[in-house]
Amino acid sequence: MKPFDRVATEVLVDNPWHRYRRDRYVQTDGTIGEYYYVDMPGSAAAIPLFDDGTTVVVRVHRYLLGRDLWEFPIGGMKPGEPALDVARKELAEEAGLVASDWEPLGSFAPYKGVSNERCWFFVARGLTVVPQRLEPSERITAHRLPLAAARELVVDQEVGDGQSMAGLLLLDRWLAARGRS
Predict the structure, then answer these.
(1) Distance CA 106, CA 96 (A)
(2) Residue 52: phi, psi to the nearest 5?
(3) Based on the number of CB atoms within 10 Å of its own CB, is 59 exposed (0-12), middle (13-18) or buried (19 or more)?
């Protein structure tokens, strides 16, 4: 076996959203090490863009932080669920929007040392307003703002949502490739 080959894996905690695992693996010196991590299928998010340059951000109550955060619509994936399907579902449920035009912005690892999660972002255009469909565990309000104002809310809040901030970086790259800012 070579370094970083998995020798064994064990699920320590399993719930509908993620698993907590312990892997045994080969370390660079040939000994067996243990790695504990959150095993997640992934997450997906949408940045809605209207033709007039506005977007929608959502104000989400985050139970673990005990506060509301400004974010783009985002949700966790189930095993095998396509990222675009999740982004579409979350945009409708959380922001009350459906889009006819979707483009991938990219993906990143939100907590690479703690989880194997990968987060995908998409830009959504051709938007139509629909009723929000929130789950009982969610307290979310949708706010349509100019993109610059939304950016300020996401970036300048006391405790920021890292996924939404990373999504803005992916959006900036997408806009720059199209000669926009």
Answers:
(1) 23
(2) -85, 5
(3) middle
Q: Per residue in 118-145, pLDDT tens? A: 999 999 999 999 999 998 999 999 999 9
Cβ-based neighbours of 32, under 8 Å, separated by 6 or more: 7, 24, 25, 26
pLDDT in tens, 58-109: 999 999 999 999 999 999 999 999 999 999 999 999 999 999 999 999 999 9
Residue ranges of the alpha helices (H) in 43-161?
A: 83-90, 147-156
Q: How far apart are CA 154 and CA 162, in angstroms?
A: 9
Which residues share a beta bridge with 26?
Answer: 32
Largest interatomic CA distance in the chain:
59
Q: What is the pTM of this model?
A: 0.93
